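Input.
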Amino acid sequence: MTNSTYQYHTLPSGLRIVHKESAATVAHCGIIIDTGSRDEQTDEHGIAHFIEHVIFKGTTRRKAFHILSRMDNVGGDINAYTTKEETGVYASFLPEYYGRAIELFGDILFHSTFPLKEIEKEKDVVYDEITSYLDTPWEQIIDDFEDQLFAGHTLGRNILGTPERLESITREAIFAFIARNYHPKQMVLCSVGKISMKRLIRMAERYLTTEHSFEKKIPRAPLNQYLPQKRIVERNSFQTHIAVGNRAFPWRDKRRATLALLTNYLGGPAMNTRLNMAIREKYGITYNIEAQYTPYSDTGVFSVYMGTDPTNAERALHLLHREFQHSCHKIPGSNKLHIAKKQFKGQLAIAQESNLMEMLSMGKSVLIQGRVDSMEQLYAQIDAITALEFMDTANAILAENLLSTLIFKGSEQKP
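Output.
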């Protein structure tokens, strides 16, 4: 199947392919897997992320050094990531090395041996990653905030795991998790580069087939009830860190585009966002304030983060809620909404300039909704948003009785 930009195909194994031909000098290709930290069982916390590390540590055909050198030797790059709902392995390279990259994907995904020595060594690496993260309150607060929103649910747990759970991960547990979650039908091969779809399919048929037997994927646990709450945690830091937000719309919700626009208007990357102008520029009581919306398959998260001096925390929080209420009760004027839409579309276009980011986005889109929306389709969705829909969405997410708050309270003693 094809459209003017994206081409699609499904292998007999169920593995899906999405490709966009490009004349660019560098090609990008990856495999996105429909599994992440929320698919872990209670005693597996952190294993999805740990597997992302150890799949590079040895296969039936290669040792760790040869895996890392396979793309490095031709000037390419290979990397991986884990989120709460997906795992990705991807590479960037000159187009003539497509076969090399896809063969390597198949090797590490279907033929990894996970040597015990490498597992124990990588535990030290991930332990350092965890401790580094714990030393970074502006990162930790977002994870802890999601844990607060989804209390008791796997979607709320952080991706890295804990030192205690990390130590308990075994080789057998790794194989068991892969058997449940790494079936080809749960994978999407995504590509942006100078290669025909026909050649790409042939490579996938050759390198991404496996005779392995797989177990049935355990269904994701249904969401629990959301109860807004406010928590204050004492931290040994000079800044107070604040997260405020709510559960939000899932990926397939028709209001997703409206909430994305609202999020960008409130606290996107531009310097003239509503929150930056109203709190940082007007009063100078925060260095960094930003809004974020993350849609998942069955829910989502909207949050605003800001860091401030402990003596200004109460005032900053008051100003934030005042801006939320403004969005809830005042319909934006046509000119203001028009500017917000233009800004958002421009930022989307700039982000799409990166073929690597587009390739990863293509894979995730096919994984969740079976297709990729073109830029023209995204623009049309944004242009169709009305002022009333904008305000209704604000009320659905930003109403004060729906919001949760997490505060990492810093010391009021000056450094």
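The CA atoms of residues 283 and 340 lie 23 Å apart.
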